[in-house]
Amino acid sequence: MHSSVATSPPHEHPATLLASVSDLGDLRVGLRLARPSDAPRVRAFLERLSPETRRRRFGTPQPQISASLVRHFIFPDPRQRMIVVATAPLEGTERIVGLADAAFLRSGLAEIAFVVADELQGRGIGHLLAQAAAALAARHGARRLKADISGGGVPALGVMRGLGPTVSTWEDGSSVAYTTLPAPAEDDGRDAVGPFGSFAERFGGRRAG
Question: Rounded to an integer, what distance in angstroms lies between the CA atom of residue 194 and that of residue 14?
């Protein structure tokens, strides 16, 4: 189990609204939107990933981390995509330990993808990233999520099932999961952005009082 504390009041910039801290055992993980100043941290994170983890996320081992790949994560067009960054204090510095991508494909559908540092996989960071990406997608009107789970296998399918009823299928030679998100809660005056709004409380998160 993990506890979550929202660090910002509602009705602020989305980058502030998403900001949160969760305790995963002895690991304190922060979530926020990516920003241009993250470029060196994003590059360092991607370079630390094993070739197998890069292959699962990007479809190739990515022996060289290109400037265009780094830009993909720090300069998204918020009308089309948003990037969630997971950070944690490690070895005396705040490191990026995971990234999630939420792409708004068409009315009612969004595609998400996420990757977690090899040494921290299985700690729940992927679940946090997926919940945050799902909440952002819902904010943009998505009611269904799509995710290519070819590389993630059973664990990735389990993350998607944690977001709502999920079916898996094959598309163009890849295993793809489609998840139906819970219906939004009735408006009670709370903002639904981020993993601590009224929508994401359906995932079991807690909103700070």
Answer: 8
Mark 145-154 as b/e (b = at least 16 C-beta within 10 Å): bbbbbebbee
CATH topology of domain 3-203: Aminopeptidase (3.40.630)
Q: Is the pLDDT of residue 173 over 90?
A: no
The number of C-alpha atoms within 13 Å of 175 and in the hemisphere containing its C-beta is 13
Spatial separation of the C-alpha atoms in residues 94 and 103, rounded to whole Å: 26
The whole-chain average pLDDT of the chain stands at 81
Examine the pLDDT at 6 and tell me if it is beyond 90. no
User: What is the Cα 208 distance to its own chain's centre?
Assistant: 20
Residues 89, 91, 95, 97, CA torsion sign: negative
Give the span between the Cα atoms of 90 and 95, in whole angstroms: 6
Sorted by where each begins, the domain ranges of the chain are: 3-203
Residues 6+ apart with CB under 8 A from 141: 107, 108
Residue 75 predicted with pLDDT over 90: yes
Token digits of residue 194: 């981020």
Q: Count the residues in the chain.
A: 209
Count the alpha carbons within 13 Å of 202 in the hemisphere toward its beta carbon.
Answer: 17
The DSSP letter of residue 14 is: H
12, pLDDT greater than 60: no
C-alpha–C-alpha distance, residues 174 and 61, integer Å: 17
Q: Are the C-beta atoms of residues 57 and 121 closer than 8 Å to each other?
A: no
